[in-house]
Amino acid sequence: MITKRIIPCLDVRNGRVVKGTNFTGLSDVNDPVELAAFYSDSGADELVFYDITASNEGRKLFTDVLQRAASNVFIPLTVGGGISTLNDFDRVLKCGADKVSVNSGAIEHPDIIENAAKLYGSQCVVLSVDAKRVDGRFMVFSKGGRVNTGLDAIEWIKQGYNSGAGEIVLNSIDTDGVKNGFDLEMLKAVCEVVSIPVIASGGAGKMQDFLDLFKTLPKVDAGLAASVFHFGEIKIDSLKRYLSENGVNMRID
Amino acid sequence: MIAIIDYGVGNLFSLRASLEKIGAEAVVTSDPSVIKSSDKLILPGVGAFEDASKKLTATKLDILIKEQAAGGKPLLGICLGMQLLFERSYEFGCHEGLGLIKGEVKPLEGYIQSGLKIPQIGWNALNIVRPDCEIFKYSRQGDFVYFVHSFFGSECDESVAADTEYGGRVTAAVWNKNVYGCQFHPEKSGEKGLCILKAFAEL
Q1: Do A101 and A127 form a contact (C-beta atoms < 8 A)?
Q2: Is CB count within 10 Å lower at the N or C end of chain B?
Q3: Do B123 and A167 lie within an 8 Å CB cutoff?
Q4: Which CATH superfamily is domain B2-201 in?
Q5: Does any CB of chain A come closer than 8 Å to the CB of residue B118?
Q6: Of the candidates B127, B112, B120, the residue with the CA atom closest to the CA atom of residue A221
Q7: Catalytic residue among B20, B79, B158, B191
Q8: Could you give phi then psi for residue B129, rounded to 5 degrees?
C-alpha cells in the first residue's frame, strides 16, 4: 500500500539554504545540493525547494542550484516561490523540477492552475495555501502570510482542485512556528472537500506530532516541515522508523 | 548508447541525469538515424495517452519503434511510455497503442477499492512476480518505487513482471522478450530506481 510521505522544505536565498545546523558528514549545511543529498540519503520521500529570492541574480542562482540538485538526487522535487506565469513553470521544469507549487501567483492569476494543468498535467501542479483563522473562518493569506486576501480557504482550495491542481499543501499560519503540532482542525476541513493528496505543513515540533497527524487524519498524505529537520531536532530516518513502529505505512529501505 | 526518445511529451531532465549518474551513455533524440544506431531505447512520457500516441504517429516514430523492437533492440517504456506499449487505451475514448505488449490500459477508477485517491501519487512496494526479468536483477521484493498515474495496464497477465497493492493488484512492470515497461518512475525512485535503470543499461 502507498506510504505516507515525509517532506523537508529547503528555503533558498541567493543560492544558499537559509536555515541550517551542523549535521555530521555535511561540510556545508547551507549548500542546498549537499543538504538535498543528505535528506535523500536519510529517507526523505520528496524535497521542496522554496525560492525566497527577490532579485534576478538570485533567481539565476536558484535555478543553478536546482539543476545541480536534480542531477544528484533522484526523488521527486517540488519547486515553489515566485511562480506566477507559465514561463516560471517552464523555467524550473527545465532545471529538473517534477512539480511546481503556486501560492500568491495563483491568487493574482487564478487561470494559471488550469493552464499549467493542461500544459503539464495535474500531477505537476501543486496549490500551496497559507491560511489563518479570522472570525471563525479559515482565510487565505498572501505575501508570505502578511495580507488577508479575503478568500475563504476552503472555497479557494475547492476551486483550485476543480481547476486541475494535483496536490494541496496546506500551511496553517496559526500553528506555524509554534511547534505544538499540525493544525488538525483546518486540515480535516480541507480533506473533506478534495480527493487529491493533501500535504500538511506548519506546526511540527516533535515526532509525535507526525504520528498524531497520520493517525487522526488518515486522508492526509504527507507531512512537510523545515526548521525541525534543518536544526536536527527531528531526524528523518528516526522519524520514519518511529512512525513505522507505530503502525504508519512508511517507505523504509 | 541509450536513445531517450523525445517526441515532445514530458520532462526528460531527470531521466537523462539518472542515466548519467549510473554511468550509462544516453542521448535525448527524435532523430531516426540516432535511434537506429543506438543499442537501447527508452520511451518516456507523462500526460494524456491520445496526445502522446498522436505525436508518435505524426512523427512516424511509432513505426520506427516497432521496427526497432521487432529487430530485438531492448526497449523500456516509462509511465505513459509503458502504457503506449499496450494494444490500446481507454483513457478518454479508445486509442491504439504500439501493440508490443498484449493488453489494454484502463482507468484505476472502478477497478481499485473506492475511497482511495486517484491518481495514485507516491511510493509503493514492488511485488516482483517475474524474478527472472533482467531489469530486476539488482532489485529486491518489496523495494519502494514512485508512482504517479490514473490508468494502469490491464488484461496483460502473461506480461506482468511486477505489481503493487493499491486497493487491488495494479500492474507495476511488464515484460515481453526485449520489451520492458515500468508504470512507476525509476528515475524518481532513489537508489532502488537507479538499480532498475542500471540493470536495463547492462542488458
Answers
A1: yes
A2: N
A3: no
A4: Class I glutamine amidotransferase (GATase) domain (3.40.50.880)
A5: yes
A6: B120
A7: B79
A8: -95, -15
Q: What is the mean pLDDT of chain B?
A: 96
Which of A110, A107, A120 minimizes the C-alpha distance to A79? A120
- Report residue B19: phi and psi, to 5°: -70, -35
- How many A-B residue pairs are in contact by the CB < 8 A criterion? 87
- The answer to whether B103 faces chain A, any CB pair under 8 Å, is no
With cell 544506431, the residue in question is: B37
Tens of pLDDT along A157-188?
Answer: 999 999 999 999 999 999 998 999 999 999 99
Q: Which amino acid is at A206?
A: K
C-alpha cell read off for B33 = 538515424
What is the predicted ipTM?
Answer: 0.93
Cβ atoms of A201 and A169 within 8 Å: the answer is yes
Contact A96 B148 (CB under 8 A): no
Peptide bond into A218 cis (omega under 30): no
**A31 a catalytic residue:** no
Specify burial of residue B129 (Cβ count, 10 A radius: 0-12, 13-18, 19+). Answer: middle
Q: What percent of chain B clears pLDDT 70, i.e. is strictly above it?
A: 100
Active site residue A88: no
Class level of CATH domain A5-245? alpha beta
Rounded Cα–Cα distance for residues A121 and A107 (Å): 20
Q: Which of A84, A80, A68 is nearest to A36 (CA)?
A: A68
A134 to chain B, minimum CA–CA distance in Å?
31
Contacts 24+ apart (CB under 8 A), A38-41: A39/A8, A39/A229, A39/A236, A40/A73, A40/A74, A40/A75, A40/B190
Residue of B120, B123, B197 best to disrupt the A interface, most CBs of A under 10 A: B123
Task: Kindly report, residue by residue over B77-132, the tens digit of the pLDDT.
Answer: 999 999 999 999 999 899 999 999 999 999 999 999 998 999 999 999 999 999 99
Distance (Å) from the alpha carbon of A148 to chain B's nearest alpha carbon: 31
How far does Cα A6 stand from its chain's mean position?
A: 10
Q: Is B79 a catalytic residue?
A: yes
Any CB–CB contact under 8 A between B187 and chain A?
yes
